[in-house]
Design goal:
mainly beta
């Protein structure tokens, strides 16, 4: 990791509270290659907003269902400004669809089995 993660708010289409993400830059090295990555990550508890808490285990330890989103992008240079990152547009599109994905409501069982991953269907 290059530097420390910072919080970044992503404005959502249609208004409403912005989604909160952690964002950090990383360097990945391979034989004769160096790649610079920018990684965004956030969590959304059942019935809540996208958040980037200081301690996710404490913040979400009590929630019955949780969605975590990573967006990873290779940068063309290590000093690209965050404000111009095209990944922000992708995040807006993803969140618009993910926020339409039905979550279980009170009295309705979860649409997945405990201990097995649940993958919502996105229609793009």
């Amino acid at each position: 990791m290059l530097g420390v993660p910072t919080r970044h708010e992503v404005a959502l289409p249609g208004g409403g509270p912005p989604a909160e993400f952690w964002v950090a830059r990383f360097r990945k090295e391979g034989p004769g290659q160096r790649h610079h990555l920018r990684i965004f990550w956030s969590w959304r508890p059942w019935g809540g907003a996208w958040q980037a808490p200081d301690n996710p285990r404490l913040a979400f330890g009590h929630v019955p269902a949780l969605c975590k989103l990573y967006v990873v992008r290779e940068m063309t240079s290590p000093d690209e400004p965050l404000e111009d990152d095209p990944a922000l547009g992708l995040i807006r599109l993803l969140l618009a669809d993910l926020d339409k994905t039905p979550w279980p409501s009170a009295g309705r069982p979860f649409p997945f089995e405990a201990g097995r991953p649940f993958t919502p269907t996105l229609n793009w």
